[in-house]
Amino acid sequence: NIFDNPFRRPYTMKIAAASLALFAASASAFGTPKAPTFTPDATKFAYGLPGSIDPVPDFDPLGYTVGADYETIKEYREAELQHGRVAMLGALGMLVTEEPIEFHPLFQATNKDIGPAIRHLDEVRAVSPYFFELLALIIGALEFNRALTGWTAPDDVLSKNAALKPDYFPGDVGFDPLGLAPKDPEEFYALHTKELQNGRLAMLGWAGMVAQELVNGKEIFVNLGLAEDRFDPSKLPVQF
Fold first, then answer.
1. pLDDT tens, 1-29?
2. 137-143 average pLDDT score
């Protein structure tokens, strides 16, 4: 029993506390939607939604926007924005949990280097197996809130021919704990474009970092020669 193991108990309590704190902080940070009323313009790329900038303002090499209606474009933008947000968190998480920073809120790393971030979940599972169940509940609660805020009820999707609510602006679930959302529409759309651009870069960056670690098993800064390689694969809880 992991709760009876005196060596694992501190890690178990730390992970439980971190999970509950994350859930509480996430729940309290949501409020009313912040986006101004948006009017689609069929003469513009992606109906004028933010995210189109120079030097390639109409970037759509695979033609997904050609012939697509506004509701479809909203769904594309919603998916792109959510993936971008997850990628930004993932890219940052990979960098701060590896050498030389090695900040691990869930477990200690002073006694060993657990290697590239793609192997960190092995350590989490070994230290506290139930963490992933807690994480699933937190993600489920956040996604449920997003569904209630922006998505049409399942029974009405076919009749209304729209998965998203008519007045829902893609990505605007009311999450603005620092109050950064501008009141001015143009400033809001400019900030929204910056978020999209950073998310796009993060998706590419995260994919590149994962690919590099899969190829040679080296941490990012170690691979760049900016940190010492202390990783010993034999100390990992899961061996391949």
1. 444 444 455 555 555 565 555 555 555 55
2. 92
pLDDT for residue 133 is more than 50: yes
Is the pLDDT score of 178 beyond 90? no
> Would you state the pLDDT for residue 7?
45
Q: Are 73 and 49 in contact (CB under 8 A)?
A: yes
Characterise 174 by phi-psi region: left (phi > 0), alpha (psi -120 to 50), beta (else).
Answer: left
**Do residues 152 and 163 make contact, with C-beta atoms less than 8 angstroms apart?**
yes
Q: What CA–CA distance (Å, rounded) separates 26 from 142?
A: 8
For residue 91, what are the contacts with CB-CB under 8 A and spacing of at least 6?
202, 205, 206, 209
Whose structure tokens read 């139930």?
A: 130
Cβ partners under 8 Å of residue 213, min gap 6: 116, 117, 118, 219, 220
If you count them, how many residues does the chain have?
Answer: 240
Cβ-Cβ contacts under 8 Å for 12 (sequence gap 6 or more): 2, 3, 127, 128
Q: Which residues contact 162 (CB under 8 A, 6 or more apart)?
A: 71, 152
